[in-house]
Amino acid sequence: MFVKLTRNELRLLFREPLPAFFSLLFPTILVAILGSIPAFRQPNPALGGSRVIDIYVGIAVALTLAMLGLQVTPLVLATYREKGILRRLATTPARPVLLLGAQLTAAMLTAIVASALAIAVGRIAFDVPLPVNFAGFVVAFLLAALGVFAIGLFIAALAPTGKAANSIGTLLFFPSMFFAGLWTPREVFPHVLQRVGDFTPLGAGEVALHSAATGHWPSLLSATVLVGYLAVFGLGAARLFRWS
Amino acid sequence: MPVIEVTNLRKRYGDTLAVRDVSFTVERGEIFGILGPNGAGKTTTVECVAGLRKPDGGTITVLGRPPRDPSLRRTVGVQLQESQLPDKISVREALELYSAFYPEPADWRALAAKLGLSGDLGSRYAKLSGGRKQRLSIALALIGDPEIAILDELTTGLDPQARRDTWDLIESIRDTGVTIVLVTHFMEEAARLCDRLAVIDRGEVVALDTPAGLVDAISAEQRIRFRPSVPVDDALLLAAPEVSAVERHGPQIEVVGTGNLLHAVTSVLAAHQIIANDLRIEQASLDDAFVRLVGRD
């Protein structure tokens, strides 16, 4: 039953052209565009000798999580509530919480494929090294995903309609991605901004991914921040989520 | 033994008492109607029966169990008011997915055929007409092969032809042994389909009877109007025990009375070789009964 629900959620996700494109392909396209700029393939002293493109693969992974966690999932779940789909499910032997789980699983699978694609294109086209500490990278990815999706669930719990959920998600998306370094790599941020970024979900997520990519484990600070988001917003969503 | 028993149901939302005191029983195999004006508490009542809301007072049993018993999700099918599906899901996918929820589902292909949805299996939900969406919604309520189907306002928003088709469908479902609880505010629908009706107003049951019984209860009085071929003396008609009054409206005579009034009047006229032209019998309808029961001033 859960497998069928998840398959159905995936199918529906890919039938919405914009979300499907932005969450699945856009991060890879970003890597491809930035990678094709020659200056971004030169070692840059401001980035500690890394190339811009090396850093952007990690940022692309964070971008995928932000799109799915802050925009797609809250929109889908709040729409399901608004349209009475969760209520209809409550009248069948399938519990509405299963649909929630199926949606999260579908989003997670999409995030994994999109991230793998961005990493593969970075490696094959632009020689971006694969994450040195692969296990650490998986841990960082999971922590970041859990933190961001918990916030997404919280938005879905609060928003009365799909439209409202989408607006809140978009509003959070831009500052979150700013702190993850989407527009300017974090490495060139002033110290204060870097420090603030360490406490944002995608800032902490990007730091964790970057550490693992360069051979370390995610720092205790990043891990604590992400687990904190998971705990606070996850519990908040669990308390506030209405099924109808 | 009744399949649904509701006793002194009470449900409040904040300060509003949506259901004050509702009691009724539904017998196996019948179509039981819940009729009432908008905001009377009909939907709240069936939502409590369907286990979607927790009553504040009273008791409900469905197939001998409390309404929130998980096993009832398999044996009670529910068609909710204003409950949609994702825009991009196809009819086939919805039927397949929902049938996977049940241990022993009905054959969804046969169900789709019966509901006239066979030609729409590939269509996306958002592209379906209101009538098709409603049929799909009914199909999903029946897909678990339920013993009881609760259908809330199932013909609201349908055109007259689609409404009639849906009525035929409901009768054919009942003929397969499914007990049906039908919430409606359409008199014609209630009169046509329901074996028994509870009329709910302001959170209370104001009448519970067969449609014909409801009509009889408000008005045993009948009126017959006709234009006699030759003048008739009032006394002639008043002599019949069934006749209580005779009124004249120009060339027309209106006879008021009870019992088998038509037979009484035609017998008198025949005995005097008078022909009744333009004869019309005016009987109270379920509409009249409803207005009398829940009439507001």
Architecture blueprint of SSEs:
The complex is a heterodimer of chains A (about 240) and B (about 300).
Chain A: H1 2-15, H2 17-35, H3 52-82, H4 85-90, H5 96-126, H6 134-158, H7 162-180, H8 191-198, H9 201-213, H10 220-240
Helix pairs in contact in A: 1-5, 2-3, 2-5, 3-5, 3-6, 3-7, 3-9, 6-7, 6-9, 6-10, 7-9, 8-9, 9-10
Chain B: E1 4-13, E2 16-26, E3 31-35, H1 42-49, E4 57-62, H2 72-75, E5 76-79, H3 91-99, H4 108-114, H5 130-142, E6 148-152, H6 160-175, E7 179-184, H7 187-193, E8 196-201, E9 204-209, H8 211-218, E10 222-228, H9 234-238, E11 243-249, E12 252-257, H10 261-271, E13 276-282, H11 286-294
Parallel strand pairs in B: 3-7, 3-8, 5-6, 6-7
Antiparallel strand pairs in B: 1-2, 1-4, 8-9, 10-12, 10-13, 11-12
Helix pairs in contact in B: 8-11
Question: Explain this structure to me?
Answer:
The complex is a heterodimer of chains A (244) and B (297). Chain A contains 10 helices and no strands. With 244 residues, chain A is mainly alpha-helical. In chain A, α6 (134-158) runs antiparallel to α7. Chain B has 297 residues and is an alpha/beta fold. Chain B folds into 2 domains: 4-209, P-loop containing nucleotide triphosphate hydrolases (Rossmann fold), CATH 3.40.50.300; 219-283, Alpha-Beta Plaits. In chain B, α8 (211-218) crosses α11. Chain B is elongated, with a radius of gyration of 24 Å.
Outline type of chain B:
elongated
Q: What is the H/E string of chain B? A: EEEHEHEHHHEHEHEEHEHEEHEH
Uncertain parts of chain B: none
CATH architectural group of the largest domain in chain B: 3-Layer(aba) Sandwich
Structural class category of chain B: alpha/beta
Termini distance of chain A? 22 Å
Gist of the model:
The complex is a heterodimer of chains A (about 240) and B (about 300). Chain A is mostly helical and about 240 residues long.
Descriptive key words:
heterodimer, A: 244 residues, mainly alpha, 10 helices, globular, B: 297 residues, alpha/beta, Rossmann fold, Alpha-Beta Plaits, 2 domains, four-stranded antiparallel β-sheet, 11 helices, elongated
